[in-house]
Specification:
Elements lengths: L3 E5 L27 H11 L12 H4 L55 E2 L5 E3 L7 E2 L13 H6 L6 H5 L6 H8 L5 H9 L2 H10 L11 H15 L6 H6 L8 H10 L19 E2 L24 H4 L8 E2 L21 H9 L1 H7 L14 H4 L6 H9 L5 E5 H12 L26
Helix pairs in contact: 1-7, 1-8, 10-16, 12-13, 12-16
């Protein structure tokens, strides 16, 4: 007799089981229109380390084509590290990293969808009129106007993040400018780019309002990056898409059973809803905690407080944005901190979070060795009261599913992988970039 297991089924308290129907089909009309020439500039910039303070890291370092737009790590190794993906190291000497990136590198799939309105694990970038520039962001009123959409606004923020791409104060002019005010670095970066003749010529050709290179600002750079990301990582040709279009044989028997569970008994679709399989809301899963944390100002402990760090509403504590599940089988590890290495282990956390937290071992986290940070990596787990607070904050109901049903759910998640997602992308990784800096 199969052992019955409790399933923590992604189900928000407010949503009854089975309340969410099948999503609408996803297709080209659901995405913003991206200019091809701008995307070609964006491809080069995405892999060009010219956009980092110390010219030693690019967007592609942590969102690499070889790793389906992610890095394969639980917590990333940012500015100062060496290499790409799970083999990336923390650097050496005075250039070595001072801190791990506090959260898992999010996947880039389908971020050009017209309905995307909030980004980052804590939603610190939202479509909003709060500051008169179209967005509520960490840059507040200093975020420039003119971004084509939220994906472009997102592109400028890692450039000025100390441990991601900017570097440490006194190391370079970018980090120093950011220390003065967040928007002070963007004109410096724009000048770096537009004074390279090849880039200058390409911007004049691709943007109607740019007549000469010295008109290029961080806004055009961001719009080019967004054009590349938005075109490059579109995906809507999974077996599930074929099934939605009427191909009854597109799903294997176990995938079809998993589909019925996902949209029925298990209630997964209450939060993983819509064509992107995300409600873009914020929910607490009580994942195992580790890493340097992303705290509120003056927080005395290395914890990740989640959405409350942006909203300042205590009810948002430990809640994180619902990730899209499209191509999820390609983007391990899972969770806002990459706590689980496989889909099965992530689903099993939903099966019984208390047991999973108790059984979780640091070895499950994909963390490159950083001896000088070992003291901080798992110290939060020694705080009994903090662990109790996090374990008690869960926005999901418990049901009953047996082992076979868990297996079927995992099979269905694999049915959300696009047929072309694991192959060459439209533009891919460039062999060289105009700055002549090395390409990861």
């Amino acid at each position: 007799m199969k052992r019955a297991l409790h399933l923590l089924a992604f189900l928000c308290f407010s949503a009854p089981v089975g309340a969410t129907g099948l999503p609408a089909k996803l297709g080209p009309a659901d995405f913003h229109t991206f200019d091809e020439k701008q995307a070609e500039i964006g491809q080069l910039l995405f892999y060009d380390k010219i956009l980092s303070g110390n010219r030693n890291i690019s967007c592609g370092t942590c969102h690499h084509h070889d790793h389906h737009g992610t890095d394969g790590l639980s917590l990333g190794i940012g500015e100062g590290g060496e290499g790409v993906g799970p083999k990336r190291t923390a650097g050496t000497g005075k250039d070595r990293i001072r801190k791990r990136i506090p959260r898992n590198a999010p996947a880039l799939w389908n971020l050009g969808h017209k309905d995307i309105r909030v980004l980052f694990h804590d939603g610190r970038l939202e479509v909003s009129d709060l500051y008169g520039n179209g967005f509520n962001s960490p840059a507040q009123e200093w975020l420039p106007a003119g971004f084509d959409h939220i994906l472009a606004a997102q592109a400028v923020l890692p450039l000025v993040a100390q441990f991601e791409m900017a570097g440490n104060p006194k190391e370079n002019e970018i980090a120093g400018a950011v220390h003065d005010r967040i928007d002070a670095a963007w004109p410096i970066l724009a000048k770096r780019v537009r004074t390279i003749p090849e880039y200058g010529e390409k911007f004049v050709e691709a943007f109607d309002h740019i007549n000469q290179p010295d008109q290029v600002t961080i806004v055009e750079i961001a719009n080019a990056l967004a054009a590349f990301i938005g075109r490059e990582w579109q995906s809507y040709d999974a077996p599930f898409d074929a099934w939605l279009s009427g191909d009854a044989d597109a799903l294997s028997p176990d995938q079809d059973r998993g589909r019925q569970l996902f949209f029925g008994e298990a209630g997964c679709a209450a939060c993983h809803s819509g064509p992107l399989f995300s409600d873009q809301g914020f929910h607490a899963l009580a994942l195992p905690a580790f890493g340097p944390g992303r705290t509120r100002q003056w927080d005395p402990m290395p914890r990740d407080v989640g959405r409350v760090g942006e909203s300042n509403r205590l009810e948002d504590s430990y809640r994180f944005r619902t990730p899209s599940l499209r191509n999820v089988a390609l983007t391990a590890p899972y969770g806002h901190n990459g706590a689980y290495p496989t889909l099965e282990t992530m689903v099993r956390h939903h099966v019984d979070p208390d047991a999973a937290r108790a059984a979780w071992k640091p070895a499950l986290a994909a963390l490159p060795e950083v001896p000088w940070l070992e003291e901080i990596d798992f110290v939060i787990q020694t705080d009994r009261l903090e662990m109790a607070r996090q374990a008690a904050t869960r926005d999901i109901r418990i049901g009953l599913l047996d082992e076979d049903k868990i297996s079927d759910l995992v099979a269905f998640l694999h049915a959300l992988t696009g047929k072309t997602a694991d192959g060459p992308r439209p533009l891919g990784r460039p062999e060289a970039v105009p700055s002549e800096l090395p390409v990861d």
